[in-house]
């Protein structure tokens, strides 16, 4: 029986002899300068060999065929090639060989990737988790001074002004946004001496504050930390670490995936009456702020108790109280470049120098409650129930423009270097030129009811309304999404502009056939269009606060929830609940957490960085 898989040496020698004569005749009759002739000779030689010998030759030729072009280049050239790759591609390249692993892990590549996303490395600081021991009580307050009237109410006021008495007029003005008032909601009372601490992972909340009858040893095991401890707790504060931009990039990706999960830990920075020097009434506004000189992040909050307070996020304690500058509720704050501006129902805008801890200026030009204040390097902008937007120049804060076109209270304003964006109870969004004060464009009926909140990162503008919906759109193309896709964009935009749409391309470039009527996303499964999904994918009450991030959009509502949306598609990413027992008035965020405050006097921290060292992330 012949075995084709094996040939002994004798048989090989017998078949090789004739081939040598053929090879000699080929070599004698061909020009060695011809590559094609050499290739033909090699092929004929290989074709005449048995399979076992072909395998041996293949192994010998493999190193020649697997020549590493990139790895053989100078390091500078190889890194230049790798600099065009994404983070995912670099991770894949690191698995090829040791040379590629060294190149793919080069810090310069990861630094460029981080800087392109605005991710900065900072030296880790030693931190200590906050721990307080004061309880809270049920709250009774249900007023909302931070919202102006809508155009329906404003028009009624104008028509009836000559017919109503002074007393009746005052009664109408005091019932601001009466249709949005919450008729009642459950109160939550925490007894005992421990601060409530709630943990929520994958959307499920679990209370871990001490229960009645627990021993002191059980209480001592409660984890009050709301952020991951630094890796180097035992090291001295003067130790500096070499920047690891690959670690920085991967940590940001982990945090991003935590939001998508969602996986978070919920804790309360303040409950009613705790800590001892906390706010004593409704908290209307907040803002996270990092001091440039120290890199320390703090939280500022403004309240109906007429004060602004600065919170140490490491200890959970109030470090500064700015009081006796407002005679009524603080409705809005803005902190930037060492200055703090606060606006209140006393018609004042107050500017405070944080470094010097002294008053800079008090502005009293508005004729009614100042509902929002924002500023940058060049100017300060405020808006009011008096239906006007006012601007002031830095550094002297002298008046610039009095912008009047809205028909109802201007509830929110946002500022950039070239544009001012204002949203009003008259359902419109207006764009103003910062240099001249001229009205550039009006988007009428941008929502079906009054606009309660605005945020912008040009060319994108995000708005929230008392119609319970959000809208994000590009002011240059009018493309975007809305949680109420049935609403069309109207206004004085040129007729050539494409109308606002809620259709978005999927990953393969095709437009999806299924549209979620509540979140406006086409990247959904058919089941997502059910009535249950529609209920989940929208707010159930007025959207009081919105925040526009690089990847996500966040919104806080009177329905006691915070929702996170995909910025590109408008799809609902996370639905955060269980933190507040009263209407949510304001939210803020960074890459590690969301903070919120509201009517129940609680300040909640929704921490997505639990268990992750984030001490080197620039917040």
UniProtKB/TrEMBL annotation:
Tagged with keyword Repeat: yes
Record region (Disordered): 128-163, 201-221
Sorted UniProt keywords: Repeat, WD repeat
InterPro entries: F-box-like_dom_sf, F-box_dom, WD-F-box_domain-protein, WD40/YVTN_repeat-like_dom_sf, WD40_PAC1, WD40_repeat_CS, WD40_repeat_dom_sf, WD40_rpt
Biased composition (Acidic residues): 140-160
Ion transport among keywords: no
Name of the featured protein: WD40 repeat-like protein
Domain of life: Eukaryota
Renumbered ranges of WD repeats: 276-321, 323-362, 403-442, 536-575
Spans traversing the lipid bilayer: none
Pfam families referenced in this protein's UniProt entry, alphabetically: F-box-like, WD40
Segments forming domain F-box: 67-113
Organism for this UniProt entry: Guyanagaster necrorhizus
């Amino acid at each position: 029986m012949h075995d084709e898989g094996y040939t002994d040496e004798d048989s090989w020698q017998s078949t090789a002899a004739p081939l040598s004569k053929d090879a000699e005749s080929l070599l004698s009759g061909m020009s060695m300068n011809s590559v094609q002739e050499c290739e033909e000779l090699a092929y004929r030689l290989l074709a005449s060999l048995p399979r076992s010998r072909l395998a041996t030759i293949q192994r010998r030729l493999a190193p020649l065929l697997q020549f590493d072009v990139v790895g053989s280049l100078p390091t500078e050239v190889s890194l230049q090639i790798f600099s065009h790759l994404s983070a995912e591609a670099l991770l894949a390249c690191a698995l090829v060989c040791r040379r590629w692993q060294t190149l793919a892990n080069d810090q310069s590549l990861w630094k460029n990737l981080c800087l392109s996303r605005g991710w900065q490395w900072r030296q880790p600081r030693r931190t200590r988790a906050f721990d307080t021991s004061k309880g809270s009580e049920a709250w009774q307050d249900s007023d909302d001074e931070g919202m102006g009237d809508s155009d329906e109410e404003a028009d009624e006021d104008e028509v009836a002004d000559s017919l109503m008495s002074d007393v009746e007029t005052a009664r109408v003005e005091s019932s601001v946004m009466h249709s949005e008032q919450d008729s009642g909601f459950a109160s939550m009372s925490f007894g005992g001496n421990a601060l409530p601490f709630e943990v929520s992972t994958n959307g499920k909340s679990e209370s871990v504050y001490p229960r009645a009858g627990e021993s002191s040893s059980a209480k001592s095991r409660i984890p009050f930390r709301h952020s991951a401890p630094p890796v180097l707790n035992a090291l001295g504060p003067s130790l500096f670490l070499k920047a690891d931009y690959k670690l920085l990039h991967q940590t940001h990706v982990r945090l991003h995936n935590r939001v998508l999960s969602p996986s978070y830990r919920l804790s309360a920075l303040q409950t009613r009456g705790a800590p001892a020097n906390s706010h004593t009434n409704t908290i209307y506004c907040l803002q996270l702020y990092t001091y440039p000189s120290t890199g320390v992040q703090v939280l500022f909050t403004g309240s109906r108790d007429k004060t602004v307070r600065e919170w140490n996020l490491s200890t959970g304690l109030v470090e500064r109280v700015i009081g006796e500058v407002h005679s009524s509720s603080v409705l809005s704050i803005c902190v930037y470049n060492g200055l703090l501006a606060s606006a209140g129902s006393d018609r004042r805008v107050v500017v405070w120098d944080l470094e010097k801890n002294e008053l800079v200026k008090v502005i009293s030009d508005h004729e009614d409650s100042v509902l929002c204040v924002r500023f940058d390097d060049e100017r300060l902008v405020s808006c009011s129930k008096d239906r006007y937007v006012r601007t002031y120049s830095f550094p002297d804060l002298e008046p610039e423009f009095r912008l009047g076109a809205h028909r109802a209270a201007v509830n929110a304003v946002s500022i950039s270097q070239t544009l001012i964006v204002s949203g009003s109870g008259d359902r419109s969004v207006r764009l103003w030129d910062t240099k001249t004060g001229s009205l550039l464009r009006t988007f009428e009926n941008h929502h079906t009811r009054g606009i309660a909140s605005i945020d912008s990162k040009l060319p994108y503008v995000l708005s929230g309304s008392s119609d319970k919906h959000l809208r994000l759109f590009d002011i240059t193309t009018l493309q975007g999404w809305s949680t109420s896709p049935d609403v069309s964009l109207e206004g004085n935009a040129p007729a050539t502009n494409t109308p606002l749409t809620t259709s978005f391309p999927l990953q393969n470039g095709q437009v999806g056939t299924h549209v979620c009527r509540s979140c406006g996303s086409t990247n959904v499964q058919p089941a997502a269009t059910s009535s249950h999904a529609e209920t989940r994918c929208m707010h159930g009450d007025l959207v009081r606060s919105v925040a526009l991030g690089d990847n996500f959009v966040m919104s806080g509502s009177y329905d006691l929830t915070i929702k996170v949306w995909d910025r590109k598609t408008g799809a609902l990413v996370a639905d955060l609940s269980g933190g507040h027992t009263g209407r949510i008035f304001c939210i803020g965020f960074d890459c590690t957490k969301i903070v919120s405050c509201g009517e129940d006097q609680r300040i909640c921290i929704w921490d997505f960085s639990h268990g992750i060292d984030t001490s080197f992330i620039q917040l």
